[in-house]
Amino acid sequence: MIIYLNGQYIEEKDATLSPFDHGFLYGIGVFETFTSLAGQVFLLDWHLERLNQSLRDLCIESTIEKPFVLDIIHTLLNQNHITDGHARIRFNVSAGRGNGFSADPYEEPIIFVMISPFRPESLLDEKQGVILHTRRNTPEGPRRLKSHHYMNNLLAKREVGNDPSIEGIFLTKEDDVAEGITSNVFWRKEDMIYTPSLDTGILNGITRRYCIETLCALRVSLIEGRYPVSHLLSADEAWMTNSVQGIVPFRRIGEIALPKNNRTISTKLRTQYTKERLEHKE
């Protein structure tokens, strides 16, 4: 695989990072994961908005511009011979070397980008939700970043295993519904849509934002708040969202079945999201 590393396109085996990089020493770094379809990245502006806010939060002195990102993606597609333009992309910014453990800003961050082939037809049509025993940790700062601090997610993944058809669902320490291991969650009860609010400590997901804005445009009522797991388990339908898998309904959560014929909202959202992602042009 050819990767991008600070201005160079190199074989992954030749890539090196300094052991003094604070992304390695202290986990000071953030990333975005997204896909390209036929070389086009859906909602890239939103990904970069979140990424740049995270860089400001971490005092990493870099602003990532869209033309820069698109140039890297298209070069990596070519150099990795991904001719259909369908790829999964992880865009990372690590803090770089710092002045020991200090409060100084990071002036020389490390940017590295990895890419691999992506098959849209491999996406699952539904998943099973499992309520995790592992609790969602609280963010290190005022908001959750998509950061290199991933131990909480890893512990949750070990709890449910590697079956791609299963998504673990975190609760907070107060027993409120939080988010999936790599997703946000929504559910419908009668005519109302519910999703955990950001003050539960969840990530402000890009596809979460898409759902909220789309539901608003469709004039479907939605409430962001704090909900016990019993509220989720009494839903008529529920679904998860992330930028790679899109919008995926749950067939069941724990022992509670969620019938296909109740998927009035998730099916509509999934159809529209898939259509817009396929038709999107930069």
TrEMBL record:
Gene Ontology CC terms: cytosol
Protein's name in the database: 4-amino-4-deoxychorismate lyase
Key words of the record: Lyase, Pyridoxal phosphate
GO molecular function, one term: lyase activity
Claim: Electron transport is one of the keywords in the record: no
PANTHER family attached to this UniProt entry: AMINO-ACID AMINOTRANSFERASE, AMINODEOXYCHORISMATE LYASE
UniProt-listed SUPFAM superfamilies: D-aminoacid aminotransferase-like PLP-dependent enzymes
Keyword Ion transport: no
Family indicated by similarity: Belongs to the class-IV pyridoxal-phosphate-dependent aminotransferase family.
GO BP annotations, alphabetical order: amino acid biosynthetic process; carboxylic acid biosynthetic process
InterPro entries listed in its UniProt record: Aminotrans_IV, Aminotrans_IV_CS, Aminotransferase-like, BCAT-like_C, BCAT-like_N, Class-IV_PLP-Dep_Aminotrnsfr
Co-factor(s): pyridoxal 5'-phosphate
Taxonomy, superkingdom: Bacteria
Assembly and binders: Homodimer.
